[in-house]
Each structure stands twice: as C-alpha cells, then as structure tokens.
Amino acid sequence: MSHAIRRFRPEDRDKVIAFAATLPEHDLLFLSRDVREPRVVAAWLKAIEEGEIDSLIAEDKGAIVATAALVHDPLGWSAHVGEVRLLVAPGRRGSGLGSDLLQGIFMIARERGLAKLTARMTVDQTGSIALFEGVGFRAEAMLKDHVRGTDGQSHDLTILSYDAARVAARHEAIGIE
Predict the structure, then answer these.
(1) Is 110:54 a contact under the CB 8 Å cutoff?
(2) Sheet harboring 154-163: ordered strands across?
(3) Model confidence pLDDT, tens digit, residues 86-138
(4) Is the separation of the CB atoms in 55 and 44 below 8 Å?
(5) Model pLDDT for residues 78-92, shown as the tens digit of each residue
C-alpha cells in the first residue's frame, strides 16, 4: 500500500472529517476535542495558520488514511514542549505509516527547536504505546479515569515523553544528523 505524506491544508477539511468519522470512538479519546466535528477541524486549521499546530496527513488514492499533529504554544511557559497526536486508519496500522508520520513530526519538532515531546493515549492502546516507545518515548504519567467516551465508560490516560534535546545531543556526539 502506498501513501503520500504532506502538510494538512484548508482544502483537506472535508476529507479529514470523513477520515475521522471512520475511526472507532475509542481511538479519539486521547484528543481534547472530537475531530469528527466540522467546528473542531476549523479550529485545527486556524491553529495551524497561527503557528500553534503543525500537521501532516497521509493520503492514499485521494483519501486520508492517517494524520499527525505537533501542538505547541510558542508563547507559553512550556514553549520548549510539543504534544504529538497521531491517528492511523485501523486497516493501515502495522504498515509503517505511523512511523513515517512520526519521523516527519520529529523533523518539524527539530525545526521548531522543541526540547521535549509528549504523547497521550489510553492505556489499552498497546499498539500505539509500542510504536511511540519504539522511537524513544517513555511512560511519564498515568491519569486514572481521565477520559470518558459517549457511552459513559471512563478510561485511564497514559502520558509518554521524549527528551528530544538529550537524543539530539547523543546524535551530535556520535556524528548522526
């Protein structure tokens, strides 16, 4: 299966909403907002325009099959930190697509000068946790009953982090760009 990765643009709005509508609700619980809603996607695009979010999409034959976002607040106390959000269509998981998008996000984080990255997901999303741990993220916190689905079911949320500054210093020391 092939895919093309590029920046999320305003003309992708309806395709992103259609993609999000195909995802199980449980996949969306770690997001602070429901990206199946047009208003939420409009706010996402506005945040991209304002420089608070960098976002990539992966397309296959004109359909979006995955998205990745790097959320950061350049004016806040944690301007050195970015939050990574990754959504991959169930049928595309395990194909390397998530890893490809994460590499793109790492490049953007480096360009932005971010020293630390975080990612949130429910503790039972073991495939996502393995993907993030495989690229160097480590568990940092768990919040009990932090998110609740529309069915009223509560879920624990795990927060993983990646020390980008430490990894960059290690790479520089051994000559990796």
Answers:
(1) no
(2) 4-7, 53-60, 63-71, 81-88, 116-122, 154-163, 138-148
(3) 999 988 888 889 999 999 999 999 899 999 999 999 898 898 999 999 888 99
(4) yes
(5) 999 999 999 999 888
From CA 10, how far away is CA 46, in angstroms rounded?
9
**Superfamily name with CATH number, domain 4-174:** Gcn5-related N-acetyltransferase (GNAT) (3.40.630.30)
- 15 alpha carbon, distance to own chain's centre: 18
Are 158 and 122 spatial neighbours (Cβ–Cβ below 8 Å)? yes
Per the structure block, which two tokens stand in for 148?
């609740």
The strand pair at 116-122 and 63-71 is best described as unpaired
58, two tokens: 């992966």
* CB neighbours of residue 138 within 10 Å: 10
Q: Which long-range contacts (CB under 8 A, 24 or more apart) does 171-177 make?
A: none
Report pTM: 0.87
Query: Which residue, among 21, 57, 56, 65, has the nearest Cα to 40 in the 3D structure?
Result: 21
Contact between residue 164 and residue 112 where contact means Cβ atoms under 8 Å apart: no
CA dist 169 and 176 (Å) reads: 10
Domain ranges of the chain: 4-174
